[in-house]
From TrEMBL:
It comes from the Bacteria. The lineage of its organism: Bacteria, Bacillati, Actinomycetota, Actinomycetes, Propionibacteriales. Belongs to the glucose-6-phosphate 1-epimerase family. It catalyses: alpha-D-glucose 6-phosphate = beta-D-glucose 6-phosphate. InterPro entries: Aldose_1/G6P_1-epimerase (IPR008183), G6P_1-epimerase (IPR025532), Gal_mutarotase_sf_dom (IPR011013), GH-type_carb-bd (IPR014718). Its EC number is 5.1.3.15. This is Putative glucose-6-phosphate 1-epimerase.
Amino acid sequence: MAFETTTNPMRGVEAKHGSGHYGVFEHGAHIWSYQPDGQAPVLWLSAHSAFSDDQPIRGGVPVIFPWFGPGEEGDPAHGFVRTATWHLQDTKDTLERDGRLLVEYELDQAMTGRQDGLPHRYRAYLRAKFTPEYLGITLEINNTGENVITFENALHTYLAVGDVREVTVSGLDGATYFDKVTGETQTQSGDITITGETDRVYTSEGEVVVHDPVLGRTLVIAKSGSANTVVWNPWVDKAKAMPDFGDDEWTGMLCIEAANCRDGAITLRPGEMHQLRQRIALA
Ligand SMILES: O=P(O)(O)OC[C@H]1O[C@@H](O)[C@H](O)[C@@H](O)[C@@H]1O
């Protein structure tokens, strides 16, 4: 079966492959569904997410650029591209043959207008490669202007987990991290377990493995072009404080984000390009 262009709840590209499902919205070039054939959904999507042009989607893979968090300019949090309407550049559909679908979106300053937080020309390109074995995501930023630009970015991936309190995350042992909850810099010792609000920016370029005993699966999160891995779960109080996040939904998700933020911000001279990639695979 070929992919479809859909409009409900937002315009985008959607496909079924066996019992699997793939989906991207043009709003934010937002990958919101990756479910390989025969598997449970790999990406988490809040049942309380707004599907509105002026709000980000809660779940899936928000594209964060050109700043991470509040940024120097304040609003909007995590940059302006996750609520921008991207342009569908291309698709390559080999679903019938091998269960694969490639979807490419682009965005540039002509589409978003001159923004205070990034008053220079840029082109952003997002490629989602859906396969039965993995989801591959590439975010490419080109400096198409005449000024040096410095930015932060991230693929803010929300993973679906059986119960976050039972999950262990390996691959970050020995890495230093900035703990956004306490404001302290720490060094990770051993695997990560989630026992409270967790909001950490690790300095790490390596692969992370999420062991999920409740769903009985292991997810391998590989990446390149990324100096930081962000691990985020809001836990009880923060979940309650977010209108687009169900009070009890925090147990079913964990963000493992491929990022370049804080000291890891990227600087591009005119004509230069940066590629951030993340691959989420079932082990
Ligand atoms: O609510 P938002 O803007 O989508 O952000 C969610 C979270 O995103 C994480 O990446 C940040 O580290 C957290 O501090 C933040 O709370």
